Amino acid sequence: VTVHLLTGVTRGAVTELAKHLGVDCRRVERGREAEQKRAQVEALGADQVIAVGNGNNDAMMLSAASLGIAAAVGQEGTSVRALLAADIVVRDVVDGLDVLLDSIRLLSTLRC
User: Fold this and answer.
1) What's the sign of the alpha-carbon dihedral 3, 16, 27, 77?
2) 12: pLDDT confidence band, cut at 50, 70 and 90?
3) Distances (CA, A) of 98 to 8, 40, 42
4) How does DSSP assign 42-73, residue by residue?
5) pLDDT tens digit string along 73-96?
6) What average pLDDT does range 58-71 have in this prediction?
7) Distance between CA 23 and CA 18 in Å, rounded?
8) Crossing angle for the helix pair 93-101 and 103-110, to the nearest 10 degrees
C-alpha cells in the first residue's frame, strides 16, 4: 500500500504532517482542484485507488476511485457532494483507515 496525501489546503502544517507520517504529499494548484484530484486518481490507476475526502473538491476524486470514503464528522464538516460521491461514510480519516484494516467490516458495509 502506498499512501499519497493530495491536498488543496492553503493553511496548516500539511507538509509537516506528511513528513511525520512518511507519506508523499502533493498540493493541487488553486483553481480546478477537483479536476486535478480526479486526474491524480486516474494517473495512479483508479481501479486500484481508495480515496478519502470531505470537501466539494474531493467529490470527483471519490467518485473516480475504486472505493470512495467520505470522512464526515471531522472539525471541517463534509460537503453534500462528497457524501453523495462516496461509497461509504465514516466519522473521520482514522476511522476510514481502520475500516480498511478490517475486511469483514468493509464487506459488511458494502454488501448488497
Assistant:
1) positive
2) low
3) 24, 23, 24
4) HHH-GGG-EEEE-SGGGHHHHHHSSEEEEE-S
5) 767 789 999 999 999 999 888 888
6) 96
7) 5
8) 100
Report which secondary-structure segment, H or E, holds 26: strand 24-27
The two beta strands, 67-71 and 88-90, are parallel
Q: What is the band of 29 on the pLDDT scale with cuts at 50, 70, 90?
A: confident
Bridge pairing between strands 50-53 and 67-71: parallel
Alpha carbon dihedral 99, 103, 107, 109, in 10-degree steps, equals -10
Beta bridge partners of 50: 67
Taking 70 as the threshold, does the pLDDT of residue 10 lie above it? Answer: no
Q: What is the DSSP letter of 46?
A: G
CB–CB of 28/37 below 8 Å? yes
Listed in sequence order, the residues at least 6 apart from 4 whose beta carbon sits closer than 8 Å to its beta carbon are 23, 24, 25, 26, 40, 44
Longest dimension (CA), the chain: 40
Q: Give the SS3 label for residue 14.
A: helix
